[in-house]
Amino acid sequence: MADLDGLLNTTTALHDALKDIPNNDDDDLDGDFDDTGDSDEDDFGSDGGSGGEGGGDDGDGSGNDGGDSGDADGRELIIRQGKAFGNRINRSIKGILDQCLDGDWITFKKVPVVKQKSMFKRFKTKYRWDPRTEQNIYDGFINVLKRRFRDNMKVLRKKFKQNARDDRHEFPDDKDNFDIMCKYSPDDSMPLGKWQRMCDQWNTEQWKKRSEAGRANRKNDLCRHTGGSIGFDEHHLCMVN
To answer: Average pLDDT, whole number, for the chain?
Structure first.
């Protein structure tokens, strides 16, 4: 228990230090306006695939994942690492998100709070944490949802665009054309009507302008870390240890 308290105190101190660093990603996270197609592994680590809700094939829950082998009720004990968690736990959150995306939402801001809390309840059936860190864990959970939601939307748009290309449509400068893309549902898992309603929301001047701004900001971002497939916060913890 003493080791856990020590680890918790170290993580809490690191989180307090990091939260004072200016974060310019908030609009980008919530708005899903970065349309460059870049991955987010510089923030949270590589997904290595969808992983699914189980996400248990990537380790034993020790080390940089910030977890232990669980307790009597079978839930794994975890801690937050910077903005998020270890890669395996982040993949587990993505699996929950994938199973709960049943609305016509194109940005995370549009996801109802009640839906976000419902996903967190599912997360709590798999993991446990020190009760004193409940809000901290919830905030980290939402951070991962925001990033993975944006990733999901990028994947959808790319898939639909490719379906249109396969039908010999062209996209100058690789820009999305929702008037064309809305006619091509990616697969049987998404009804065409739902996809068309999402395209209608993307196909607005406001969204296009903010998407272009996001592309420009991303290209001008020179502060990209090169720590490999792990996230920046996990890399920082490794350096501390």
So the answer is: 73
pLDDT tens-place string over residues 32-44: 444 444 444 444 5
Q: What angle do CA 193, 195, 197 make, to 5 degrees?
A: 70
Query: Are residues 128 and 77 in contact, defined by beta-carbon separation less than 8 angstroms?
Result: yes
- DSSP three-state, residue 179: helix
Q: What is the pTM of this model?
A: 0.66
Residues in Cβ contact with 227 at an 8 Å cutoff, skipping those fewer than 6 apart: 235
Q: Cα Rg for the chain, rounded, in angstroms?
A: 19
Paired tokens of 65: 């994942």
Number of folded domains that form the chain = 1
- Cα-based distances in Å from 110 to 31, 56, 79, 113, 139: 9, 30, 28, 9, 17
Give the C-alpha separation, 98 to 86, whole Å. 19
Alpha-carbon distance of 158 to 155, in angstroms, equals: 5
CA distance 139 to 159: 30
User: Does residue 233 carry a pLDDT above 50?
Assistant: yes
* DSSP assignment letter at 66: -
Place of tokens 């898939």: 159
H or E element, residue 16: helix 2-18
Q: Locate tokens 């993949």: which residue?
A: 91
CA–CA distance from 217 to each of 167, 181, 203, 221 (Å)? 33, 25, 21, 6
